[in-house]
Specification:
The complex is a heterodimer of chains A (259) and B (287). Chain A is an alpha/beta fold and 259 residues long. Helices cover 40% and strands 24% of the residues of chain A. The N terminus of chain A is likely disordered. By secondary structure, chain B is an all-alpha fold. Chain B contains 13 helices and two strands. Chain B is globular, with a radius of gyration of 24 Å. Chain B starts with a helix and ends with a helix. The chains are: A alpha/beta (259), B mainly alpha (287). At the A-B interface, helix 3, strand 6, helix 4 and helix 6 of A face helix 10 and helix 11 of B.
Chain lengths: 259, 287
């Protein structure tokens, strides 16, 4: 039963690893943020990472697009090994989209310009092509009418959806979400989660750091629980929520599911 | 208060709004308003001029103000001609503009080096900054004219432009650095995450946002540049101050000429300030 569910999420075809993390360590000075972390994510798989704050969740996904440099171990994304090689780093970043907790939209550009600057400058699309693509993804995040506004004129939920569209405009193969709803007012969380669910249903490979367990249950193929820079538990959501094997994970779930 | 900083709908409405609210608010607003600043400025200038005039009278100075317009412009049978002071002003403006261009360019490069991850880059930038900042402008000028001049065959004008450019580049690079650092780290991360290269991130994301942080101190630097350009008179580049000295050595009208020269400098720098205030407002509204 469990095995069946595990493979069901990864689609019909043979699972192919798209992210391979092996024995990853990360130090900030003397502080060890990641300790011997290994994780394989298959193409089309949706992974939700949770854990207490300071457990290394964000650091882990920030290593995947090299916003953080890992200290030891190896990290292969879409067949490209992440090293100091600038060319590789940029190649990986073009395939990996990232959505931040604080949105990080470019405040001096309109929504449309936020969406086209990457495709035009990095993917070398012509302006009309980039605009067409931007409008397509604005439609997909349900805010086509906000194209000519500046980010500051939008609500938090709208800004985060623009941020998602900005990443999608690069047509990435993998999307990383770093606590995408943590900075949002409660009434705006759902509009962002809805977009993420739709994205998951489209078959995008996703890694989400989030505490939205309802969302996790709905879309995750695999749950990862981290603590003190280590992966403590990896399990499909059914097992993870019903019967977590580690005590620490159970306590954590009790705490966040209490309300 | 925020509304007040924008352009009022009409001068009358704006004027009326200036006097709305409690006396405290009005006083505060008046103290901040441009007309008030100009008024205070004029009063101070008047007092100084008055004191000078009284003093000059006491020493029996022979005022010859009627000769001054000739040095600004002349209308002769040949038509309109620029006076010596106006020509000198042209030189000052050309000199300052060119030097400012160099200062911006070098300043930006030094700032980027300083912020780069290259150890050598940072070291070079810091060494340059310390060297230039700890040198009196006059000594730097002598260095350019008497040392680098003969070596590289620089004429006095080129040496002056380079010297002023280098001197101000140090100050301007700090303005760039502060402006660049004022943009949040998240902007870097977002731009990196869509695969932009460092030059692209600077060009399209960081610098456009830094401009609004940099404009006010940049204005100060532009004004400073025009004023410090006067120092090149010591190597006899024919700019405003040199012209002033030359006229005085011919005519002995030191009071009239120095007042005039000071007024010309002031007009230039005031125009500069007003212009940049205008640009700042445009930028503040756009983002």
């Amino acid at each position: 039963m469990q095995l069946l569910e595990l493979t069901a999420g990864t689609g019909m075809s043979e699972p192919t690893p798209i992210i391979e993390i092996k024995n990853l360590d990360k130090f900030f000075g003397n502080f060890q943020a990641l300790n011997n972390v290994s994780l394989t994510v298959n193409s089309g798989e949706r992974v939700v990472i949770c854990g207490p704050s300071g457990s290394g969740k964000s650091t882990l996904i920030r290593c995947i697009n090299r916003l953080e440099e890992h200290s030891a171990g190896s990290l292969v994304v879409d067949g490209i090994e992440l090293t100091d090689e600038t060319k590789n780093i940029r190649a990986v970043r073009m395939e990996v989209g990232m959505v931040f907790q604080q949105f990080n939209l470019f405040p001096h550009l309109t929504v449309l310009e936020n969406l086209t600057v990457g495709p035009i400058r990095v993917r070398r699309l012509s302006k009309p092509e980039a605009i067409e693509r931007a409008r397509k993804f604005l439609d997909r995040v349900h805010i086509p009418e906000q194209a000519d506004k500046y980010p500051a004129q939008l609500s938090g939920g709208q800004q985060q959806r623009v941020a998602i569209a900005r990443s999608l405009c690069m047509e990435p193969r993998i999307m990383l979400f770093d606590e995408p709803t943590s900075a949002l007012d409660p009434e705006m969380i759902n509009e962002v989660l809805d977009v993420m669910v739709e994205l998951a249903e489209s078959g995008m490979t996703m890694i989400c750091v989030t505490h939205e367990m309802g969302f996790a249950r709905k879309v995750a193929d695999m749950m990862v629980f981290m603590e003190n820079g280590q992966i403590v538990e990896t399990a499909p959501p059914d097992t993870f929520f019903a019967n977590p094997s580690s005590e620490r994970c159970r306590t954590f779930l009790d705490q966040i599911l209490e309300h | 208060m925020v509304e007040l900083s924008r352009h009022p709908a009409s001068p009358v409405a704006g004027f009326a709004r200036l006097f709305a609210g409690s006396p405290g608010q009005v006083a505060k607003r008046l103290a901040k308003s441009a007309p008030m600043s100009v008024a205070v400025y004029l009063i101070i200038v008047y007092l100084i001029v008055q004191a000078a005039l009284t003093g000059a009278e006491a020493m029996g100075y022979n005022w010859q103000w009627y000769r001054i317009p000739d040095y600004l412009y002349r209308l002769t049978d040949d038509g309109f001609q620029l006076g010596e002071i106006t020509v000198g002003l042209g030189q000052t403006v050309a000199l300052s503009t060119q030097a400012f261009g160099i200062a911006i360019l070098v300043g930006l490069i030094v700032a980027l080096l300083r912020l780069s991850v290259l150890v050598v880059g940072t070291a070079v930038a810091v060494a340059y900054l310390e060297f230039v900042r700890n040198m009196p402008l006059l000594v730097l000028l002598y260095l350019f004219y008497y040392v680098l001049g003969p070596i590289f065959g620089l004429d006095r004008y080129t040496a002056s432009v380079l010297c002023l450019g280098v001197f101000h580049s140090a100050l301007i690079s700090e303005i760039f650095r502060a402006g660049i650092n004022a943009v949040s780290v998240g902007q870097w991360e977002a731009a990196k995450s869509i695969g932009m290269s460092a030059p692209q991130i600077y060009r399209y994301i960081i610098l456009p946002q830094s401009i609004k942080f940099m404009l006010p101190p940049m204005t100060g630097e532009a004004v400073h540049m025009v004023k410090s350009s006067a120092i090149v008179s010591v190597i006899a580049v024919a700019e405003l101050t040199t012209i002033g000295r030359n006229i005085i050595s011919d005519t002995y009208m030191s009071f009239e000429i120095w007042f005039t020269i000071a007024a010309v400098y002031m007009v230039v720098t005031l125009i500069l300030s007003v212009f940049v205030t205008f640009v700042e407002k445009r930028y503040a509204v756009a983002t």
